[in-house]
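Lecture notes, continued. The same structure-token format from the folding unit now serves as the input rather than the output. Read the line below as a description of shape only.
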């Protein structure tokens, strides 16, 4: 029944009841009523009538059999008193207050403010008349919240005293036991909640120690008088052994569940219940062994009773269990050699032969028992091996043990290289081994200056090759061939290696020219054109915007961006480096005549005199002036005939100078690709590429030369430490483009990790992979998903949400919204979930281009569109950037808007660069886990803001005025 119609019917019934009460009271003449005076009868009947009328005028109930409690003055002032500025509707506000006041959440600067609020709430709970100053609101009306349990249950089982209904809400908020109990009850389904209402002794027991119940009530389900447990009846005995009570005695089972190991058994049940079918089947094979790891994990660091809503470690047994790949026939995906994994985890040294296959409990324990800083590395290594070995021909199980060991062992120290090769589509084990061999030689030299320059040339070339495939300038097979040529070069040959890199650059430029590019331009221009995808012919639709006609040219916009950044960087250009390579090669060529040598020497000296790069400073932290001076001296001596062109020393000095020029020029191009915004303050000083630090000194807590880079400080300035490969992920926040220079009205609440994560979602978008067909597929699915939700009853919507894995906390909010006609139930769902409701099956592969980066989830450089919001599984882990990897709402909102206006999909990255900045600076969260507020802010992005973003893109070059001149 529609919520508004149902409310009207209930109100009408209550009013008719008032009429019947008064009529019957007046008609009584054969009862003691006759002995009362008329005035006494009126005084008796009217209060009863007004009581019923009052019930009739209350807001509709949230569900069958649910009572409601008023909160006079509403929740807004309570939120402000707690320091929460997020716009929350009453039920969410109440839960947010519970978390803030009693959840021991990190980084909430409440302090004395919280203590004062608790004191005021206690005062409110002890009296029915009046309100404390913090909640006084002239003309304000009470907000009604579900009591979840009958009011008498709260009085008898929780408080042990009479609590008037109008003071029940502040009484619950003021008492930690009652508040956390309420939070847990909110997540239960209706049948389970009814069971709790009928068992006050269970409620009383939980209220005495409710932390585990508040955190993990989602996994507690009681239907038809027995526990609903993973694995069903066949595993009932195992669950009984773990809990010490039979599942057909839910009250005892739940009490033991919550009490065992300070609530860790409840955590385990919640974790296993939340797994998908294959992962849950895997877990059910090893319940007892897996629980041993859950029960002992971080006992000293994490206390559920003290901090029920915070895990403190991103990589815990639950997170690992969710991520492990499951083989089609059951069990773990390969590699399953326990001896191999022991060698990978324990490092070099003798390893005892262990024929026992790897099991999920053993692998989970090996990962989470490591030092907290090593857990992520071990998990990412396992996930990488499972992904890659499944793609290697003949299957992972057929790989030679030595090869498998080499690949798995290398990941922890070479993750940038390995994930980039995976993204490029390499599947042959020989290619992986060749890349690893070349990478090892790059840093084998004890001379850190030379090692950094070799790293720069190799990593920059690999990045450039991968980029050319991403924009379509070179096909993926061709890019892999070029990468194989890179791997085949010998970095230990100090003389030959720079020349080999220069020849590879020339080969790339030739391939770009063969794809339709003009080969007459200088190398700098040709490479920038190739990196922007200009050589590839693409359709350029025409659109009407603000009264003018524009041609949408994503290639031109990208070329403009790269050109602006390169001009701001300054320094050595690629053409100069290639000219030095050509001149130096000719100088030492035995076939060159004396006249030729003199001419080449003069040309090289002219080129040297025009150098305006990092030679006056340091390159990668090393003084490069001696190398450039050696280049000049060798040219002078060869031109004067004072040096032997066959001299190894002369060849070495020429090569050292060339290495400096190539390293700077190529690294600058990689930075140009990685810096999204040409107006970023990062480019206000010197060329940031010159300050890159490869981390060769391996400082504790900082990335190494093959780790995904991260920002740090060197002296008085900022620097980036780590690999050049995947540098765009390290500089992700530089892809966000400010829409105003003014400070936001309220301080931003998104954490730095989440801002970086949302920036990475912009950096990872490839405008050349975004198709209008995929745009329309997403838009249509969102429309159908909303229609299904709008047409559904509360129970139908609940069933749909349950099929998507929506947690109980949000499912209750959805039911309340539908039954109470309180607004759009979709506000409690991610657009990814709404899209899944509208899709006829799994998302098609073409939607992956719109996906979010998976690095925070599985360590890869891949993307995916989350079909569900894994809030339940990923909650409580601050600092991991997990929300940005699970909330696609801003991207899907932009997609839908583009579809509505018929604008090309390729405009999305430019729009998102602005929109994400606004989201990061404007979204207000109640706490670090308040994903719904971020979802709401993303879904509420107004159309006129996106219109402004598109107008700004005219200056960027994406929209070229048909009647004007194309920007370049």
């Amino acid at each position: 029944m529609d919520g508004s119609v149902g409310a009207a019917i209930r109100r009408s019934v209550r009013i008719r009841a008032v009429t019947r009460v008064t009529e019957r009271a007046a008609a009584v003449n054969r009862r003691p009523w006759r002995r009362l005076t008329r005035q006494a009868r009126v005084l008796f009947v009217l209060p009863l009538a007004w009581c019923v009328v009052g019930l009739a005028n209350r807001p509709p109930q949230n569900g069958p059999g649910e009572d409601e409690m008023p909160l006079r003055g509403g929740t807004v002032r309570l939120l402000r008193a707690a320091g929460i500025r997020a716009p929350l509707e009453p039920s969410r506000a109440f839960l947010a207050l519970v978390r803030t006041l009693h959840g021991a959440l990190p980084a909430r600067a409440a302090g004395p403010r919280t203590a004062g609020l608790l004191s005021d709430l206690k005062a409110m709970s002890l009296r029915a008349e009046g309100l404390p100053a913090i909640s006084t609101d002239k003309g304000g009306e009470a907000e009604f919240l579900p009591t979840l349990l009958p009011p008498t249950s709260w009085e008898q089982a929780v408080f042990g005293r009479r609590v008037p209904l109008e003071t029940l809400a502040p009484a619950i908020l003021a008492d930690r036991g009652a508040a956390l109990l309420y939070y847990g009850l909110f997540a239960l389904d209706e049948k389970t909640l009814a069971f709790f209402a009928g068992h006050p002794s269970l409620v009383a027991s939980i209220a005495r120690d409710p932390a585990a119940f508040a955190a993990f009530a989602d996994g507690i389900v009681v239907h038809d008088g027995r526990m609903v447990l993973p694995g069903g009846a066949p595993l009932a005995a195992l669950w009984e052994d773990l809990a010490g009570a039979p599942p057909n005695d839910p009250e005892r089972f739940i009490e033991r569940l919550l009490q065992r190991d300070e609530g860790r058994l409840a955590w385990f049940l919640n974790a296993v219940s939340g797994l998908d079918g294959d992962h849950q089947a895997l877990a059910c094979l090893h319940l007892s062994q897996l629980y041993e790891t859950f029960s002992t994990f971080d006992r000293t660091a994490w206390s559920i009773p003290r901090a029920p809503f915070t895990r403190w470690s991103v990589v815990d047994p639950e997170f690992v269990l969710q991520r492990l790949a499951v083989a089609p026939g059951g069990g773990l995906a390969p590699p399953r050699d326990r001896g191999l994994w022991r060698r990978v985890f324990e490092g070099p040294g003798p390893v005892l032969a262990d024929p026992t296959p790897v099991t999920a409990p053993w692998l989970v324990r090996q990962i989470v028992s490591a030092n907290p800083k090593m857990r992520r590395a071990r998990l990412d290594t396992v996930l990488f091996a499972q992904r890659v070995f499944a793609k290697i021909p003949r299957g992972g199980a057929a790989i030679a043990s030595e090869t498998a060991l080499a690949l798995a062992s290398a990941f922890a120290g070479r993750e940038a290289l390995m994930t980039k090769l995976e993204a490029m589509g390499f599947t042959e084990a020989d290619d992986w081994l060749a890349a690893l061999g070349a990478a090892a030689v790059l840093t084998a030299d004890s001379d850190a200056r030379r090692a950094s320059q070799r790293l720069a040339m190799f990593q920059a070339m690999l990045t450039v090759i991968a980029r050319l495939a991403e924009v379509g300038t070179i096909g993926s097979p061709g890019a892999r061939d070029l990468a194989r040529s890179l791997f085949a070069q010998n970095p230990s040959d100090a003389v030959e290696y720079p020349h080999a890199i220069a020849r590879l650059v020339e080969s790339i430029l030739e391939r770009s020219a063969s794809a339709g590019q003009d080969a007459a331009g200088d190398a700098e221009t040709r490479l920038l054109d190739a990196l922007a995808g200009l050589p590839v012919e693409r359709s350029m639709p025409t659109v009407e915007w603000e009264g003018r006609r524009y041609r949408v040219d994503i290639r031109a916009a990208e070329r403009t961006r790269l050109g602006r950044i390169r001009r701001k960087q300054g320094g050595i250009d690629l053409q100069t480096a290639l000219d030095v390579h050509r001149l130096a090669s000719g100088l030492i060529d035995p076939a060159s005549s004396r006249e030729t040598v003199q001419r080449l020497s003069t040309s090289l000296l002219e080129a040297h005199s025009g150098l305006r790069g990092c030679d006056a400073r340091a390159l990668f932290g090393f003084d490069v002036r001696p190398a450039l001076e050696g280049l000049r001296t060798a040219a002078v001596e060869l031109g004067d005939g004072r040096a032997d062109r066959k001299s190894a020393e002369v060849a070495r000095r020429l090569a050292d100078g060339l290495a400096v020029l190539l390293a700077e020029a190529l690294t600058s191009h990689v930075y140009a690709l990685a810096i999204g915004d040409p107006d970023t303050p990062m480019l206000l000083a010197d060329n940031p590429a010159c300050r890159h630090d490869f981390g060769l000194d391996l400082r504790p807590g900082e990335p190494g030369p093959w780790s995904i880079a991260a920002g740090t400080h060197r002296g008085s300035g900022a620097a980036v430490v780590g690999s050049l490969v995947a540098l765009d992920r390290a500089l992700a926040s530089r892809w966000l483009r400010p829409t105003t220079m003014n400070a936001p009205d309220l301080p931003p609440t998104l954490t730095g990790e989440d801002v970086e994560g949302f920036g990475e979602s912009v950096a990872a978008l490839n405008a050349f992979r975004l198709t209008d067909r995929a745009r329309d597929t997403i838009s249509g699915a969102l429309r159908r998903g909303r229609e299904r939700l709008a047409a559904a009853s509360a129970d139908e919507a609940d069933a749909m949400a349950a099929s998507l894995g929506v947690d109980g906390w949000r499912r209750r909010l959805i039911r309340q919204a539908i039954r109470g006609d309180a607004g759009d139930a979709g506000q409690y769902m991610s657009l990814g979930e709404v899209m899944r409701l509208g899709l006829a099956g799994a998302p098609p592969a073409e939607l992956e281009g719109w996906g979010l980066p998976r690095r925070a989830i599985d360590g890869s450089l891949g993307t995916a569109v989350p079909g569900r919001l894994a809030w339940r599984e990923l909650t409580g882990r601050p600092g991991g950037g997990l929300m940005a990897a699970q909330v696609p709402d801003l991207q899907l909102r932009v997609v839908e808007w583009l579809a509505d206006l018929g604008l090309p999909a390729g405009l999305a990255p430019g729009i998102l660069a602005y929109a994400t900045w606004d989201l990061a600076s404007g979204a207000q969260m109640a706490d670090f886990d308040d994903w719904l507020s971020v979802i709401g802010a993303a879904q509420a992005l107004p159309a006129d803001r996106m219109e402004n973003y598109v107008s700004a893109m005219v200056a960027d070059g994406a929209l070229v005025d048909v009647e004007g001149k194309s920007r370049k």
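Point for the exam: Confidence is low (pLDDT under 50) at residues 1-65, 129-139.
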